Amino acid sequence: MGHIDVVAERTFDEPVLIEGLPGVGLVGKIVADHLVDALDMELYATVHCDALPPAAAYTGGDRAVTTPVRLYAAPDADLLVLQSDVPVSPDAAEEFAGCIESWFREASVTPVYIAGLRREDGASGRSGADAAEDAKDAEDGTAVGETRSPTLRGLAVGDGAALLDRIDVPAPESAGLISGPTGALLAHAMATELPAVGLVVDVDPQFPDPTAARVVLERAVEPITGVDVDVDALTAQAERIQRAKEQFAARMSRDDEAVSQAQRLRMYQ
Description:
269 residues, alpha/beta
């Protein structure tokens, strides 16, 4: 039986949870990892679920091991982050959602799920230097590079729409489908009437995309949560982040079904 083991007592007032499961462009994972580091978030709980791969995670300079999926809490805000060091297969996602759903309801948590939408601008084979240059272009708040400008779209389940109503994130312009574990979690939220938000952002499908992660942080996470996040470090470290995540992305690419992604739907597919 799955459960959440709380390791640091905290009280929350209808917190928002940012999901960081690995997906296309690793945008959700980059967002989650950056939030944990930038806000100096504390380990709040470990997630135990039979659907998760049996593994033990550890960090540098610490002998302790922990679960590969964990919850972190911001020190001065009603903000939680779901950080994952392993992909969750779609077959396991429903059970995984069941492991955490009861706690979501008990703590009145509204999850924000993040999915990358493969860009169709023809960009491919981008290097780490390209990613760093894209991030540099984003510093002035204008276009992100000459050939790309990640767009962000918002989806909602139930009362999750109220969060999107407060910020300037439009609905999708065309039909689409979110697959992988994030799609399964959104489907579970819909089936169980759990309020939730889905964010869909254009990403580079071949490389980890810290620039898309910055768009999510600035245009959605900050206004939804009211928490200021230092994204300059994300920009400055874009090339290092891209290289550090490439090996992880390569492992995930061997099993597309375990990768969360959004895709456009067209007539006569």
